[in-house]
Amino acid sequence: MSNIEVSSLQKAYGSLRAVDGISFSVRDGEVFSLLGPNGAGKTTTIEILEGLRERDAGEVRVLGLDPWKQGYELHKKIGVIPQGFKFVDYATPKEAINYYAALFGVKADADAILKRVILEDSADVYFSKLSGGQKQKVGLALSLVNDPQLVFLDEPTTGLDPQARRAVWEVIRTLKSEDRSVLLTTHYLDEAEELADGVAIMNHGKIIASGTPAEIIAQHGSGKQGESLEDVFVKLVGEDAVTADQSAAAKGPGRR
Amino acid sequence: MVSVRRIRADLTVFGRGYVRARIGLFFSLIFPIILILLFGAIFSNAGSSTVPIYIQNNDNNSPASLGFITALNSTNAMAITIVSPDVNFSQYLASHSGTTGIVIPSGFQADISAKPPVPVSVTIYGNPTSSVFGAVVGVTNAVVSGFNLKIANASAIVGTQQVSVASKTYKYIDYLVPGLIGFSVLTSPMFALVNISSQYKRDKIFKQLSLTPLTKTEWLISKITWYVVLTFVSFFLMTGAGTLFFGAHITYTVGVIPFLFLGPFLFVSLGMLVGTVSKSVESAAVVGNLITFPMMFLSGTFFPVSSMPDYLQTLAHVLPLFYVIDGLNNVMLYGNYSSALTDIGVLIVLSVVVFGLAVRFFKWRED
Ligand SMILES: Nc1ncnc2c1ncn2[C@@H]1O[C@H](COP(=O)(O)OP(=O)(O)OP(=O)(O)O)[C@@H](O)[C@H]1O
Ligand SMILES: [Mg+2]
Fold it and tell me: Which fold has domain B51-151?
């Protein structure tokens, strides 16, 4: 069964087509990674799946629910770290976790969760006093409070030190081993290669390649030995830009 | 379904943050006391309504002229300053920023004690358009009539008897305390909520909260609860300061409860509404100020609305804060409960409407 089912999804901001007819699905227990350059439409897609944004067109099912219309039901079953997570200034990570537990009406072991994201040393520091990476970790901790079946992580490792990044990887692996699904965006291609079962590379609102990391390298790579996902990503996005240039040029001069 | 557990959880986090940040506590609890002390001190002498007046006696301090001045003084309506006969009276008034004065002519005693008496006039200086001038003329005429009767050896047929309308006289501080309570009922939730709601929107904290079972209504109820509690605390602090330092007459009555509840209810909702419909933190602050400032000055906060010109009084009646302050005056000063009921009615309607609009326009999710 699929946890996420997306077909022909579209979303525009004014004349900008941020998401332009994409389709993909994520299975139970799968780690799926959305990749793509800045502005590709990853966050927009994720927010639609979380029920934070209304789609313009296309079909979306998350855990069998329509995220926009059945958000209240859905939110009990998913965990989310938004990109650039922020929280109220004068609350500590521990208080934040207890707050979420009370809101969800669940019992949460704040200390255990903090340990899991390696934040136990800052358990009682005000959110405003935490470093950027520590703030991210609070977001990760909160996304775990309600024991979610499906977790959305939008750039969870951006700005983290190597050790903390690995802690996040560990959390993701554990979630997977518990048969929960993860939808992950990241600009670290090694991370996607390391963790993801399925990958979709987006550019200008469209998916330009998808499959397992190995499949993508085999299909779109230049065939050289030891080629990484990052090499292929750079090549793919570069080619896409050239195609876009050519089609723009075809429409006549001065249209860039 | 509103959940008390979630409201309590949100209230805990919010209240703790509020206390830790300290600045909010200052503005909701300390600042109003400072206002009471400040305005109380500035106006504590303005309770008596005496008119400052300058008198120049050109009759060589004759017994009759001195008697006239004593009579004026004993009306208790004037604060008299004697001006030397050597100076030019008009110039003296101008250079002392005085507006009203009385000149007793030389020969005053000689004229009135002549047989038969020679008519004589005291001259009243002043600006005929000012309300003070009317009072001075009236008081002076009354004293003059007294003199005339005496000279004619007659006694007054028609007299007056004074009955005080209110059972006690009010001092400025008595209006000031309810007014400033209204001021703090308005400002501390308005400024805070405008700020919080626009900031939470910018930082996507609302989005984050929308992913939990907390509802918009619960979030708003939690804020209202917090500000109702603060308002009650600040009520006792402010009335306490007014009584302690300026001897304000405060009637502690359950009649104040509806206003201390409905006020924060209304202004938390209004602040939320402003913050939520604004595009940025900055524009929210501007719109918030545009709404708050006129209300702050024109609703009877610092001066009774009845002392304002008619058109401003009309304007005051469309400002929500007017009904809070008018209501507090009605229950705390006049014991006028039927008027207070009207105020309560208006406030209930306003609060419910604004709360409804705030919940309706307050977007958790998309921006
Ligand atoms: N609220 C919005 N209003 C208007 N345009 C928006 C809005 N949010 C995003 N966009 C635009 O939509 C496009 C896609 O943005 P999105 O945030 O989905 O990209 P992304 O792939 O997540 O990028 P990044 O890797 O930088 O996070 C961008 O061009 C962005 O400028
Ligand atoms: Mg993004």
Answer: abc type-2 transporter like fold (3.40.1710)
